[in-house]
Design brief:
The protein has ten helices and 20 strands. It has 378 residues and is of the alpha+beta class. It has two domains: 166 residues, FAD/NAD(P)-binding domain, CATH 3.50.50.60; 148 residues, D-Amino Acid Oxidase, subunit A, domain 2 (D-Amino Acid Oxidase, Chain A, domain 2, 2-Layer Sandwich). The strands form four sheets. Strands 1, 2, 9, 10, 11, 12, 19 and 20 form an eight-stranded mixed beta sheet that branches. A hairpin with an 8-residue loop joins strand 19 and strand 20. The longest helix has 20 residues. The radius of gyration is 21 Å and the shape is elongated. The structure holds flavin-adenine dinucleotide. The site of flavin-adenine dinucleotide has 41 residues, from helix 1, strand 2, strand 10 and strand 18.
Length: 378
């Protein structure tokens, strides 16, 4: 095939969700998804906390807030319908100092403004009824926060897309994009190392950590546009299952002031084990090593509210990298979801800076992309 209607770049959870949505909504048109690795979901979508976020933290009326709240509902329904393993385990955001308590009060207001209606403020005696083994003076309880098997979610999205005739071409790395007036010529290197190209009326850039580079290919100046990404790494440590069993819900501290991360938290996994993390620090380029010496930083920030933890419990686990739009010490930026027709690129849609809560928002982001296409009369 040398021509398609929709060409999606990147088979993480966002590209897969978009493929499934477009294949369903525009069923008489063709969808191709190009992925550079041998399989889907080899980057950020398989290196995260696997939390279905409620939508508490993000600035009011931001895409992060709106798409997270909408996406959470869509995702719970999707998981039930398609039997994706998940659990609405609930979460406590805990505080131990007066300053942390006032942060929780602000978060409670923001969460409610964002449409998270089920939040409750707990005092220490209520907390001990929920979680007898943690130590906290106050907490926000979020019952609609949950955990999900992100791999099974991606498998199901892939299956839905393919069953509606989407072609998912793994081992295909996009190398150039040229706008030819009414369609795009997208060149790629295939699995055998040879180069080829395909024409498409629509190009959707959901290439995660490479989405600034892919946006530059048809000629967007990513610095002028504010599209340059700054990779921000997050490491995780695991703890023994015997310790993990002492807590039933997700336990979070108050978030970092600049929201570069939500703070090193205790995340239950569906198999009953738990991981601690992620921390947040900027790196020059993505890498997935975990520095064992960072265990003491993790232990020190967690021991206050998880008093049962021993320093020697922590074991290096895995790392992920956030595609951040803000450089260090800068205010939080929102997701970019942009149909670039004002830049003279009709039919080119960029998704850039899709960090957390991107997993939670995958279905609402996909819906938004399909709406943008529909508005344009496809
Ligand atoms: C540490 C961490 C914790 C997180 N925790 C959560 C959480 O608990 N809940 C939540 O909702 N979100 C969380 N997130 C965010 C979430 O993981 C991401 O928003 C989501 O996975 C982004 O998916 P994606 O498809 O955009 O990116 P990716 O999964 O990175 O996929 C992009 C794909 O594009 C491909 N690609 C790149 N360049 C090319 C090219 N030239 N040609 C072809 N293919 C290409 C890549 O190979 C990759 O497969 C977390 C993120 C991190 C880093």
């Amino acid at each position: 095939m040398d021509k398609t209607d929709f060409l999606i770049i990147g088979a993480g959870v966002i590209g897969l969700a978009i493929a499934a949505e477009l294949a369903d909504r525009f069923h008489n048109q063709s969808v191709i998804l190009l992925e550079q690795h041998h399989k889907f979901g080899q980057e950020t979508s398989s290196r995260n906390s696997e939390v279905i976020h409620a939508g508490i933290y993000y600035p009011k009326a931001s895409l992060k807030a709106i798409l997270c709240v909408e996406g959470k509902h869509l995702l719970y329904d999707f998981c039930s319908k398609w039997k994706v393993p998940h659990e609405p385990s609930g979460k406590l955001i805990v505080a131990n100092t007066p300053e942390e308590v006032s942060t929780l009060e602000e978060l409670l207001i923001r969460g409610k403004e964002n449409g998270v209606k089920d939040l409750q403020f707990l005092d220490s005696s209520q907390i001990s009824r929920y979680e007898p083994n943690i130590k906290a003076e106050a907490a926000i309880y979020s019952p609609s926060t949950g955990i999900i098997d992100s791999h099974k979610l991606m498998e199901r999205l892939e299956w839905l897309a393919v069953s509606k005739k989407t072609i998912i071409a793994c081992g295909h790395k996009v190398t150039s994009i040229e706008f030819m007036g009414n369609q795009y010529a997208v060149s790629y290197q295939g699995p055998q190392g040879t180069y080829d190209s395909i024409n498409s009326s629509w190009v959707i850039n959901s290439s995660g950590l490479s989405s600034d580079y892919i946006a530059s290919l048809p000629g967007i100046d990513i610095d002028t546009a504010g599209y340059r990404l700054f990779p921000c790494k997050g490491e995780y440590f695991s703890i023994p299952v015997s310790r993990a069993k002492l807590v039933s819900r997700l336990i979070y501290p108050p978030p970092y002031k600049d929201l570069r991360g939500l703070g090193i938290h205790f995340t239950k996994k569906l198999d009953g084990s738990a991981k601690l993390g992620p921390n947040a620090f900027y790196v020059d380029a993505p890498d997935y090593t975990v520095t064992a010496e960072h265990a003491s930083q993790f232990y020190n920030s967690l021991k206050e509210y998880l008093p049962f933890l021993n320093a020697k419990d922590l074991c290096p686990d895995m790392a992920g990298v956030r595609p951040k739009l803000q450089p260090p010490n800068s205010p939080i930026r929102d997701f970019i979801v942009s149909h670039e027709k004002e830049r003279g690129l009709n039919g080119f849609i960029n998704l850039i800076g899709i960090e957390s809560p991107g997993l939670t928002s995958c279905l609402s982001l996909a819906k938004m992309v399909a709406d943008l296409i529909e508005e344009n009369g496809s």
